[in-house]
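Note to self: keep these together.
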Amino acid sequence: MSICTTDRNKHLCSLGCQDCEHFITMLQLISIVLLAALFTAILVKGSEVPSSQEHDQKKQHILQKLDQLKAELDHLCRPCPWDWTLFQGNCYFFSTFQKNWMESAAACKDMGAQLVVIKSNEEQSFLQRTSKKKIDFWMGLSDAKEEGQWLWVDGSPLQWRKYWSAGEPNNHDNEDCAVISNHGWNDFSCLAVSFWICKKPVLPCSK
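Structure:
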């Protein structure tokens, strides 16, 4: 049975509770340890079995237990892939190396995501807190099609400008792509290299 079938766990997973993800990860680690212990038991007990028939019976029993554990693992609810961060129903990937804006957008697309589109004040605060270890991250915002008309990669227009850093955007040297940092937003040349953030909805839990 999926751990997300109860009302409480559905609520945790849909809201993107980080405690839920940590709990799920711990369950998976515990299951892996159990699998390793069972394999060790096969090796140890194999030398103690007096007959091949008894050995085959014990081996079959252990294999059945392994199949049961695998089935339980398959039904664990993990809303986001490894190395992604869960927040309010979405998964976020913070890159560890740098690309230009177009390359970053393509990297997100290859992972079934897109450069982050910020939809709320809470999301903005979360991204600023999480990005403190790095200086700048590309986000899915650009005015490359028409100067001054900032559009998100999903085609929606920028509705508010309160997160731009002082004096930004200034279009210095044709800066048409936007980055986010713990200091606010800034416009950069799309050919410059920076870290980037991908975003996609959580994965549905198995039933």
